[in-house]
Fold these 4 entries.
Entry 1:
Amino acid sequence: MKTENQKAWFFVLPVLILVAFNALIPMMTVVNYSVQETFGDNLFFWEGLTWFENLLRSERFHAALGRQFLFTFLILIIEVPLGIAIAMSMPRKGIWVPFCLVIMALPMLIPWNVVGAMWNIFTLPDIGLMGYFLNHVLGISYDMTQNVFAAWVTIIIMDVWHWTSLVVLLSYAGLVSIPEAYYQAAKIDGASNFAVFRFIQLPKMKNVLTIAILLRFIDSFNIYTEPFVLTGGGPGNSTTLLSIDLVKIALGQFDLGPAAAMSLIYFAITLLVSWLFYTLMTKDDVRS
Amino acid sequence: MALELQNITKKVGGVTHIKPTNLVLESGHFNVLLGETGAGKTSLIKLMAGLDPIADGQLLMDGEDVTGQSTQKRNISLVHQFFVNYPHMTVFENIASPLKVTGMAKSEIEGRVEEAANILQLKPMLNRKPHELSGGQQQRCALARAIAKQSKAVFLDEPLANLDYKLREELREQLPELFAGRGAIVVYATSEPEEALLLGGKTALMQDGQVAQFGPTADIYRTPNSLMAAGIFSDPPINMAEFTKTGRMAHMGRNISWELSDERAGLKDGVYKLAIRPHHVLPYKTDAASVPIVGKVLVTELSGSESSAHFEADMANWVSLARGIHPYQVGENHQFFMDPNQCFIFALDGAPVGGDHHG
């Protein structure tokens, strides 16, 4: 005999309350703002989907979104192969392992605004180590406050410096979990180094790489602090990424309605791309 | 075909792991490496496969020196204790993988895979991935890869150790058939003396990184040439005791003595070691010459059709293994009988004694 009652719901309640306060309620507040206009004084006017329509037609939004995708694409295409390459060249046993791991983890431990400030000073043309070296020793004109290309190169190098470690550490974890027997089997099969990479290391790293790419996509797509401190979105609007633009609209112009609409679309895009990527990557596993 | 080891040595950081080893492993029969875990079986296989560097000595394959040759260039196969298959490839692709690397024609690959799959009954599973197979099927897939490759040497490193009992017996029966008539040198590492006896061929007894004895399996089972060899080739562990020979008589402890055979009576008087397998120490008399030993029973085990007893007699521990169920009382004295004709006799340091090859 099975006794049935509804007491189990009480066990779910704490989680429901927690999720409500840290996700649902703030999110619904944003939804609330996104369909209204306010001028303060707690006065609200119904606007319907106006802000969404305006935003989707806005040149400024398209430009920021384009820059955001370009930025994320560039850092992924550099960080992922670079991270795998570094992970593969790290020792897998011996006294150098902890040393390498600590060195790799260091950039990730630095607060984000400090990273921005560090690179800002580092690249100053007159006193920054890199800026001075490029301008006065190598004679390459480099000033990221003036030159769009230099600004982009700088924020990308900064991100690569800051976050390649994440890909390295995750790939490394995947690599060390491969039993020695697989390498031996491949050697005995007569496989080349490339075949070992392609048929043993890469498949074994697939799961951790999926997570690494997903994390790097979400983080870089939402990046704010470092480019804000480093370039402030300039020169002009050339490095105004989505989140920087969003803050400008919300806090600079105090357009809470359009900013809320933009937040929701921003969130939807992040969610959609993450979901698509994750589904594609794990499609095979589900089937088998 | 033959694989010849000439003074092969392995060192790790100055410590010798494999002492100079000389073996001639031929095709046509199984070459069993028998020894406990840590005896150096896997190390020796890795040296032969080129997975670890050989510190000293030469490795000859059909007379050709392959000591420094890379593993990739050697035409060999290796089947591990745990099942190593490429996880994202199907069974077919797994079996075909070593062939694809050689650039073999597709039709020939298919033929060879099919043949190997037939022998190992993997035909219905060719399109599955390894994780969809049972342990036994996964290991059969690994074996099929070795067979399809038709390599000169096949190393089987305790391939049945991780299988359950029934499968192990089944596959063990099939193994000699699988490789019969294929002309490959088959090297089979195991820690079970029984397995060595079942597989026949030749056996190399290994302990502490050295080969204690090498020869036809039945011969070295019957006539181990050292205490070490006798110890390795016995399960449960062999009984060892010291005795003193004076004239024709052997005396063990205070009150056990027996008359030696003519052959052994010729040995110099002195102290020797005897070794006798547990199944020759029985709770009943088998021969007129059987030597009674009275001992206090310490532990007893019943395993269906066999009874074993650990007992203490004259400060030495003994093990008896007898067919049938024998009611021993733990803590009580019991009479056992040792068949002196089944004893091996060695010098005190475990070395063979002159002219003695008794069974």
Note: Chain A has twelve helices and two strands.
Entry 2:
Amino acid sequence: MINNFDTKTLLPVRSSQGLDSLKHQEKKDLVLVNLGPSHPASHGTLRAFLALDGETIAAAVTEIGYLHRGFEKDCEAHTFQQCIPYTDRLNYVSAIMNNVGFCKAVERMLRVEVPERAIYIRVITNELNRIIDHLVCAGANLVDIGALTNFWYSFNVREKVYNILEKLCGARLTSSYTRIGGLSRDVYPEFAAEVKAVLKEIQLGVNDVQKLVSNNRIFLDRTKDICVISKERAISYGWTGPTLRACGVEYDLRKSDPYYHYEDFKFDIPVGSVGDTYDRIFIRFYEIEESIHIIEQALGKMPKGPIITDDKRVALPPKQQTYGNIEGLMNHFKIIMHGICPEPGEIYDFTEAANGELGFYIVADGGKNPYRVKCRPPCFMNFAAFGEMIEGTMVADAVATLGSINIIAGELDR
Amino acid sequence: MESAILFEKLKEKFPQAIKGSTDRFGQLEIQLEAKAIPDVVQFLRDDSECEFNMLIDIVSVDYSAYPDWKEDRFGVVYLLKSLTLGHRAQLKVTVSESNPEIPTISHLYANANWLEREAFDQIGIRFEGHPNLKRILNHHEFVGHPLRKDYPITRRQALSANESLMDEMIVRLKEKGWE
């Protein structure tokens, strides 16, 4: 039947001629529908093009790139330090994790040691970002399937975390908190107490959400055994992070390739058993609890000391030196005008971001700008599998599944 | 497995294809002939001592402005990871400007399809045998390859036509048995 379609007259789907040509088909079994690109339930401009057999999806293909803004090309035209604000816009729900991922790669290229205190603050802010990322994912996902109240419970506590981040770096969403070699500023005096208080509230909020959904018949019917993806298929698609762990693969870079003392923190990796939408939502609640444990331990261990390296190739000198002596002034001038220049080389470095393995492949040619930056966004692999996952299910299930794989268009399209 | 041992193993298995290696901050980059990519990657995936079951990323680089670069213009880096054994591999091929072709590995890993489309879109590497090699991040009417060094960062193109996606849909419907 599809051979009879004239693709030129059928599409764009909005054109009336295209719809009319469908009407005249004698054996019309399938209806072609665009889900997105601009739709409240699509969490960003994502387009899924569906062939529907009744309400069941017979085939699905997807299109991305609506938010492509040339992150990688922009990096080539900016210094290493200037790239950090661009990384905020990758996964903007957990911006600090991208800052850390990028800076860690550049620091390894420069062979710069980050001070202990900065490492602990990075761990704490990273885990706070993981928590809010998971809260957004689970909260918004539950709204998609009609459970609006949960959204308020999860976004209430997210708001309180943002208040802390705002006090910490002056920005809520696009934080640009890290610098190459350390951090932009130290934590404020009440930081530890406020984080501890907010951790308790997060736990309460997560408990509230779980109470509302874990025995809720509608929720269970909408998510259990929906859009299951097998372990093997998820691995073949390059899934990492919570979505892969929901399939039952115990893989977490914080355990398998530990960095920033993650090997010293006591925490568990929750894994799912089925790989359905239910597992993908609930694994995030369990991961939030583990992140709370990590933050509590890190707050206890956080040492005193500097928050940025004193390596003169990388860090600006203290202001007293810049204005007080000629060496300090020259050092400041060199870094501002000539930038940070790693030796020529190539590196692939990765961190466990909220969505999975966030990697940066950086090529340096000895200049102040990166020669090439390639970001490996975990969402890209998740969304590559989306079309295949939703085939055979219903349209409403596709919406629930899209939320559970947590596509952030900023990171997907770069 | 240490990447140095992996290099020796590959050199023994594919003596013609392996060209050399470079240390990249603790990870050995293994350089090989473009033609050998599918065989080598399949071996790495299926061999019991390698088990590289995940394709992490495909990175394409235009080296035309790189200082003292003597090899072919484009480089493509394949990053592999074994979830079972925990090790990683990094393979690199270079291809010339006149013939930027590499055989596809989209039959080996499910995500290679999109990753190869991205390398084609951004740099213009052609992957022979790819089922659907078209742009992915840029608009389908876009002219040129933006991450090539000779593409100016300020060049803008105003493009507005919708993409029908019907080409992909027809293939997919056939695969699912709708004729």
Note: Chain A has two domains: 2-63, 72-310+341-413.
Entry 3:
Amino acid sequence: MNKLDEPTVAEQNVNFRQIGKPRTRTDAPGKVFGKTPYAGDYVMPDMLHARVLRAKVPSARMTRLDVSKARALPGVASVLTFRDLKIGTVATDIPGQTGFKRRATDQQILVDELVRYQGEPIAIVAAETVEIAQHALSLIEVDLEPVPGVYNVFDAQKPDSPKVFGTDNLVASYKVRKGDVEVGFAAADVIVENTFTTQYIEHAFLEPEVGLGWEDEQGVINIRSSTQAVETFRYIADAMGLPHSKVRIRGALVGGGFGGKCDVTVELYIALLTKATGRPVRLGFTREDSFYGHGKRHPFIITHKTGFTRDGKITASKIDITSESGPYAFMSPYVLMYATEAGPGPYLVDHVHIDSRSIATNNMYTSAFRGFGATQACIAYEQQMDEAAKVLGIDRIELRRRNLLKTGDAIATGFKVQSAVWTEECMDRAMAALGEKPKDKGPIKYGHGLAAYQQGYGRMIWLHDTAEGWVGVEMDGTVLVRSGMTDIGAGQTSSLAQIAGELLGIDMMDITVYNSDSSTTPLAGTSSASRGLYMSGNAVRLAAEAVRDRLAARAAQHFGSTADDVDFANAQVFLKSDPRKTMPFKELVATCASEGIHRAELAIFRAPFGDWIDPETGQGQVHPDYTYGAHAVQVAVDTETGEVTILKSIGAHDIGQAVNMAAVEGQIEGGVAQGHGYALSEELIYKDGCLVTPSLSEYLCPTSMDSPRIESIVLESRSGLGPFGAKGIGEPGHTPAAPAVANAVADAIGTRVFDFPLTPEKIARAVRTARKAG
Amino acid sequence: MTNRKTLKMTVNDTVRNVEVATNETLLETLRRVGAVEVKCGCEKGDCGACAVLLDGMAVDSCLTLTHTVGTRAITTIKGLGTAEAPHPLQTAFAELGAAQCGYCTPGMIIATQSMLTHDTATPDENDIRHGLSGNLCRCTGYTKIYDAVLEGAKAMRETEAAK
Amino acid sequence: MIAKAKTANDVAPLGGGTNLVVEMRASGVGPATLVSVGQLAGLRGITIADGTVTIGAATTVSDILRDPRMKQVAAVLVESADVFAGQMIRNTATVAGNICCGSPAADLVPPLLALGASVTLRSGSGERTVPLDGYFTGYKTSVRKPDELLTAISWPVPTAKSASRFYKLGRRRGDAITMVGVSVFVSLKDGVCDTVRIALGAVGPCVMRSKKAEAVMQGKAPSADLIAKAAQAATAESTPIDDIRASGEYRKEQVQVLVQRLLTQSLESLS
């Protein structure tokens, strides 16, 4: 009770019946019994099968395209090329809620003249069987004349470089100017400068992209697909010259997304072939298609020049950021914005100077990936903090402690964060859980590493994000929720059931959630940007509260009390002041039904809206709010072979309020494993634009043999903007894991590998180099 | 071209006659006949999503030519248990949050069952790491899978002991 | 794994199929007839008799792991089988297939070479047994004729005064393709190295024995210095390439590290 003197701890909402507990998710039974239909599990009578012909080279001019033999092949229903397209281009922007679309960043749907990346689609085929479609691809005659391409961001910025995007290969650029960085450096006793690089990585969701489309009796193109974003129906309609009302995306439970299923992929090909043939069309990407067919995580090059006083206070932070966009914009400008905003990390810095840019090349295009650019930013600033600690001779944790943002401080963009900033407590809890470092054994050296972070959740406020949600009660007292939110495995629908259940006193397992249908479930935006629970959860909360208020008013009348005295639990309605006064929920509902009291509500939740940050200074608000925390890792490094074994991996995060504690831990644990892979083994290798790792035996995600038990420490400040004070955790759990591994490895070997991933070879070489240098 | 032949197959205790091309994989056959609970993740044996039991032994169905299955009984996740009569591993995976997106789950549970049958009924965490290293999971970081396997194995031993 | 005939346009033996099925489907072509060796019950099994271990061509990697006798008669093969792919592949892939696919990174071949294994090749005209050392003639080539089937693998039960080790260096721990695989076998007699076999994987066109390294040790009393010299000889004899997993230079360094380490561990276990 005496916690009231801690202003950041909200005391409301602590007496939950379902919220905050580790509950079995509503979607779990279907999954463990093999009953959940994924998008690829649907078939229809008379269905055709589609395949995509992709360019084998990354930069070329198409001088001839002849599909006549493919069209003539028996069993082929349709072969489409750019010549068959009415419009030819499709948006690469966020399918947001505002109706506005970025200009001049569309991509060609099928190669018209120029091939800009390896794997760019040239033709799509629909046939009676997959085998026939595949055979048809081999009959398409294409002449591709090589055109000089550009395969790294340095060359791409040279004046005489081939131009892939616009007139200068510049996809986006930003600035942050806070205080006066020269004044800050003048005040510094020590200046530390380092450059950190990150690699291309792949989402590697277990379910490759897949969908099934058909045209219905109203002329609506329906597409059942594996997507994070049903809102892409707008872009598909635009690309086909159809009214938005004539394209409908119906999702299914998705076999993993991680940002990789936000953009339009199979859906548009399916829509085009469905329209062309008048028959249902199924297109399932092979794993190889998936490697070539969706945007990857951006490689970044980040240089930090940081001024410190002798006692470790940061005086100035100058940061230069370059990301690789590939030939099309997609999420690159936004990802760059996240990296820029997060640039100096969760530290209070008065003098900040950031220049950032995203550069086009003929390597694979890049787009959303869990953490957006904030993760790459963290990989740089947290390694920089460890390097600075070494130079300053100050303990790494202590150096951070002296600089951490506190609740109410302004971040790099000048915005004062309103919610709790509990980074320090997270850092201490994570380090305490790490325990003692084992003693080195011969060539095996042990290391500890930590990374703290700041990650925005929700969309950038100038995107004016909204989400709708519907809650209704059937006459028998059963509860339905409708939300456009896609469920990519994080428990999105389950959490909505839990929220509605908490408010209406019905067990979450008894609630039915309809989701992910762009036409019949109220649109809630994409499951990305750690916004799912924040946005759709709030919308469902508002709707459930409205229904509850009306039911409570009627119950109050029945009990002869006031509405605020009425409570709902265990499918019963009762008075808080006298819990013996009770009635079954379904009886109350039946009464309401007979009296015409509205038992349903469609609510809209609006995130804070605002304007773009100042383009000259980068000052202003970018995100509605931020999540803070820290991750600690213990590794053993074989200094001769360079192999790394992660022994302990502990994430401590203030997530505001857990809705389903098991799901929160699951988000942290899964994000962490992706961070382990990011740091150590995952890498898409492009040689002159050609991918040389297009399989899961060459692209190395962590297996169980690579994965220690991951520990989650969950703190609840109840200060977030999500339902009941929740903050986003989908991305934050991931963001600090990779730099924590890097810092642990550097601690073990006494030197640092600055280029991700930290392969055995790079580590062994760094050890040898350091030994030679003495 | 490829020959087709009608084979007698036993899938989850149901015997059926299926016409199969000689180059067809068990994954293709199973999904074609409606056993879509068997998931396709890579078709190269790199991910384990398509694992099924052949006479109780887990194999990647994408690497198994249907013609080589012979008389061996095929068991998919649906053959292990149902909502009405759940297998202890299914219960543990559901209750402990070991299924997130759920796409790896059928293969993961199948591989676990095979490991518990053929390698050890009393696995420790390292046994689990070893037994499941051919099943990629991209959502859970494996932690809750370790928990679920330990718990499920314990429940299986208790069921066995009660018999 | 497969036992694929070198020029098998029409007939090929199929072991577990974990390589061949993928290859066939990727290329779209395959032999018209596959002989499913993996399902020939008569070829599956492990026998230990008269000081010789023999495993049939249909014996899977899991069979090796699940036979408790194997730890006594082929601990080094068990070590390798343990880090071989994932469970489903181990349940399916055959030891013979791992030999016949001819990959320079084949994980089971270095330990079999270290054990001094031989293979039995059978054709319509008869049967012959050839040492595994010398079986490979180059990248994915061997002395096996197209009409020959690899039916069995055998090796002598190691003597008490011997030790062997295997290590697989991969870019990740689980289900990885080997960057460098090393296996060593040492036996001591009267305080000097009697039999020494050092096998190297993924550092040449095929898995190979480093005869020069072995010669350094042979007949000498083991010492740290001698081991270092043997490791150097093995490094000199290796001819690794650069690929996506590692550079040739790193592989060479690791031959040195691992040969030295495994010889040291083996000899320490004997002292």
Note: The CA atoms of residues 32 and 191 of chain C lie 56 Å apart.
Entry 4:
Amino acid sequence: MPTDPPAPMTGQDTARSARFEQQVLPYLDAAYNLARWLSHDAGDAQDVVQEAMLRALRYFDSFHGGDARVWLLTIVRHTYYTMRSKNRQDDLHAELDEDIHPLVDEGPSPETLTLLAVDVGALRAALERMPPALREVIVLRELEECSYKEIAAIIEQRIGTVMSRLARARERLRAELGHHPKEVRRHDVR
Amino acid sequence: MMCDDARLLLHAYLDDELDAANSAAIAGHMRECPACTARYDAYATLHKALAQPGLYEKAPDALRQRWTTAAEAPATIVRPRQRRARMPLSVAAAAGFVAAMLLSGPAWLQLMRSGRVNHELVADVISGHVRSLQGQHLMDVVSTDQHTVKPWFEGRLDFAPRVKDLGDEGFPLIGGRLDAVDGRSVAALVYKRRLHVINLYQWPVEAGVPSPQTVVQEHGYTVIRWSDAGMQYVAVSDVSESDLRQFALAFQNDGSTSGAR
């Protein structure tokens, strides 16, 4: 529980709620999509979004215009990593994983990819095998259609980093698609 | 341009994020390099494949409903100034309740005062409850024995919380921890109801003004507040409202005899 006091409430709670519903709630799908892809699990994703929305509501007074989607997705991502940080091993693994996967292009030929890539199941499985740091940029760019600038704001990195990470992520995804075309999904929704 | 540079830049080119000069350089390179062209085509295919709607995970209805009704939550707080004319039965009942509160004087003032901080406090305790369920935050002292839990708080708080095991009533005590509500340190007792967790917060308030029990539901959690013998109690959980009411009742039983302070 944060020790800093919540934003002071005025007599305009109802107006505030209405503003929150109008400005933030439209991005509930975006929030869930990111949380779901980060956490692998539908139940965990709901917990992450629930907590993120509570935080967003609590700190809504500090949101002064701007892009509500970027603002909410930043909170969702923070919430996910805070909740996950209890699992140190998982964290460590993700970083190591990223280190040992530099920019290498050993994917299958483009012809193979064309056939594989249209299969949603294979794409999903390949995405879920990727480390979170790479998966999140793919999700933000390809699924959420964020610009590099928006991604940079959400993952709190420079645009140059976004560009190189996205390149790495796509090469990794392409390699995953080639290496495990038939593997059964490991992270089925319960 | 070298293929190594192109391998990085073709992604930005694909995403239409390159300036004119670099775009021209990439396009020029691809005209001469079949390998990079093939690469680009592969990522363009991947880009299209990832745009399939089946991959986008929409928020479940239950989650959406929580937040759509949540926006109306502040309106559910009792409004003292209702007119009597042409109101539905439920509002009439509420007005009757309010009238009773008006007659009782100080209690009404207390309700008004608490009404103002209600929403903030409810958000605070729910947030605390959710946080307590993550990782190892749930308990600082793990014990089902009230005589272990109560002394643990000694020296950690400026008051002695009331600790009761309610195992016989179906709410076994499993531990306690320090928490913060509304900017002050409070005692949090942790109880179980089957697989659910109930957090009971308590802290001292001005004695002598008992405030009535209030029940608020928000974001799928039930929050019950009451005060007794100079202590403010707030119970929060995702169990059903009737279960939490039963819990509050069980805790209040024998309240006056077991030394609340």
Note: The longest strand of chain B covers residues 184-193.
